[in-house]
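Journal club prep — side note

Before the paper discussion, L.F. wants everyone to see what a predicted structure for a comparable chain looks like in token form. Sequence:
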Amino acid sequence: MSILGATFMHQNNSWLSLPPSVDFDHLLKFTESNNYLSCPAPLLRIMLRSFEQPESEPGTALIEDSSNTRDIDSLLCATLSFDCQEWLTQFEPMSPFDDLTKRFHIASAHKSAVCLFLLRARASSSCSRSWDGVQLVDIHFHVENIIQHISQITPDDATFQSTCWPAFLAGAEAETMAQRQWVCDRMNALWEYMHWGYIRTAQEVLDIIWRSKDESVDGGSQGWVETVRKTGVKYLIA
């Protein structure tokens, strides 16, 4: 929750500090099946590495040829190369009755969500990135991919509560009213499933993002993370 909840925090990783004797990778692996968020450990590790990157000043884009931008490109490539199906073969469920198909959908949704997070929160504010001349991040694809996969997780599934963060990222990048409505319906369903405060927080933040986009001359296609950070509120969405 701390890692995913750091989506809108400025550089401050003291809360993630652990004694050197602690095997952090083992902890991340443990959370795959023992934490309801069910996010694959390799994706959590990528998120942690992204927090190590220096942030640009508010309102400015990162320099295209900076080492920071290259590092983010590397993280994006690592995310895109993450094989959900291969990961599933090594997944150790806490229960022999776990539905691994559901875990595949959750992993796939988180993979796309991490791509969108890296693109907006750390990479340049352009609508897509390229790596050796090949388009690296297709925003529309990842939004639809998240919606497609978590649509397979219904309220009667034990893993339903793990879909809030990917749904939020899809909503933040939603390009159509239909996508926004789907995300709203999803958040309402999550709220009915569990009355946890960060569900309402996610809805409030999405309202801020959508209002900013609707009022922006360019449609608010750039910098929604900075828009939210400028509110000065530390939001928790997981």
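L.F.'s comment for the group: The beta strands are 130-131, 134-135. Keep this in mind when we get to the figures.
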